[in-house]
From TrEMBL:
Residues 3-120 form the Response regulatory domain. Signal peptide: none annotated. Pfam families: GerE (PF00196), Response_reg (PF00072). Keywords: DNA-binding, Phosphoprotein, Transcription, Transcription regulation. This is Response regulator transcription factor. Residues 145-210 form the HTH luxR-type domain. PROSITE patterns: HTH_LUXR_2, RESPONSE_REGULATORY. Transmembrane segments: none annotated. It comes from the Bacteria.
């Protein structure tokens, strides 16, 4: 059973998401919050696998709430942020803070359900074109993870570019004519060198560092 917590200041949004999620036999809503201020305590009490988090809330927004989860819990739940607008610059801040991905509130029901299962598997929700637009709106930031991009080998940098295109390990293996296990080794090396937890954070670091420039197709060079 995949357990989910809902964090949104709109009662109607939470009610709709709860009804959708509870209709699935492998998904269950275990907690709700109307603001980001109670997220850490809620996560400690209920231990959800995933938090669906509104990115814009009146007292504590989704960026700070995601950052609080990452800072306060040894095993923080996967966070997927919800936004009304695809070009919401808050979303890129939430990705930097540790969110695994984002969804539009107008997403189709099956997309929302698939997203929950995707992040629990350890995969990330990457939308390459949207991430490029968000990176352009937010601007690059010099972070330790971004500076670490320079330590990647040529093959690791190539793999990171393919990750930024939203490709799976199997797709990357086919592109590079190597085995899937080899790709997994490269991805593990990337995450370790960048000191990041998942593929989403690695892609954010790639944009922040300038390895992938905003507006270009992140194809390998």
């Amino acid at each position: 059973m995949i357990t989910v917590a809902l964090v949104d200041d709109e009662d109607l949004i939470r009610a709709g998401l709860r009804a959708l999620i509870e209709s699935e036999p492998d998904l269950s809503v275990v907690a709700e919050e109307a603001d980001g201020t109670g997220v850490v305590d809620m996560a400690r009490r209920h231990r959800p696998d995933v938090v669906l988090m509104d990115v814009r809330m009146p007292r504590l927004d989704g960026i700070e709430a995601t950052r609080a989860l990452e800072r306060s819990l040894d095993a923080a739940p996967a966070v997927v942020v919800l936004t009304t607008f695809e070009n919401d610059d808050y979303v890129y801040g939430a990705l930097r803070a540790g969110a695994r991905g984002f969804l539009l509130k107008r997403s189709r029901p099956e997309q929302i359900l698939d997203a929950l299962r995707t992040v629990v598997r350890g995969d990330s929700l990457l939308f390459p074109a949207a991430v490029r637009r968000l990176a352009a709106a937010a601007g690059a930031v010099d972070t330790p993870a971004a500076r670490a991009v320079a330590s990647l080998t040529e093959r690791e940098a190539t793999t990171l570019r393919l990750l930024a295109r939203g490709m799976s390990n199997a797709e990357i293996a086919a592109e590079l004519f190597v085995g899937v296990e080899t790709v997994k080794t490269h991805v593990s090396g990337i995450l370790a060198k960048l000191s990041v937890r998942d593929r989403t954070q690695a892609v954010v670091a790639a944009y922040d560092s300038g390895l992938i420039r905003v507006g270009e197709d992140p194809a390998p060079r």
